[in-house]
Amino acid sequence: QVQLVESGGGLVQPGGSLRLSCVASGSIFSLTAMGWYRQAPGKQRELVATITSGGNTAYADSVKGRFTITRDNAKQTLYLQMNSLKPEDTAVYYCGQYRSVVPVKSPDYWGQGTQVTVSS
Fold first, then answer.
1. Which helix H or strand E contains 51, and what residues bound it?
2. What would you report as the CA-atom Rg of the chain, rounded to the nearest whole angstrom?
3. CA-CA distance, 56 to 12, in Å (whole number)?
4. How far from 31 is each of 3, 24, 41, 69, 85, CA to CA, in Å?
5. From residue 40, how far is each of 34, 48, 88, 92, 117 by CA, in Å?
6. N- to C-terminal Cα distance for the chain?
7. Which end of the chain has the smaller Cβ count within 10 Å, N or C?
8. With bands split at pLDDT 50, 70 and 90, how would you rate the model's confidence at 26?
9. 73 three-class SS
10. Dist. CA 7–CA 95, nearest whole Å
11. Phi, psi dihedral angles at 40 (to 5 degrees)
12. Residue 102 to residues 12, 45, 87, 92, 110: CA-CA distances in angstroms?
């Protein structure tokens, strides 16, 4: 059974940084693409960043140059380093895992989410 557990969310001031982590179990992590998504109140869930099994990354325009997605296959952990945070980054952030080596449509598995709040 696949499990994804996020951590690292919290309250941060504008301009600050946070690093989210997502620990995966129950799958061959190194052979799957991964992604970070977020959902703000009253809005649909949106893609933030993805990473293929080979380490190729892609980002939403709104976070390019500020967020970095990485993975540690030995630790079966996905990360999202978020810098220069803005109030509009406030959302619940979800980790997603695909069954494929590259992202295809939506993730097949989801974590429970971690809240990120950017406010002074």
1. strand 46-51
2. 13
3. 29
4. 15, 12, 33, 17, 31
5. 20, 12, 9, 6, 10
6. 40
7. N
8. confident
9. helix
10. 10
11. -90, 160
12. 32, 20, 31, 24, 16
Q: Which amino acid appears at position 55 of this protein?
A: G
- At 30-48, the pLDDT tens digits run 899 999 999 999 999 999 9
Residue 75 tokens read as 């630790």
**If you search the block for the tokens 């009253």, which residue do you land on?**
42
Residue 50 clears pLDDT 90, i.e. is over it: yes
The sign of the dihedral angle between the CA atoms of 110, 22, 7, 105 is negative
Give me the residue label for tokens 């296959």: 73
Alpha carbon distances (Å) from 60 to 19, 42, 68, 83, 86: 17, 19, 11, 15, 15
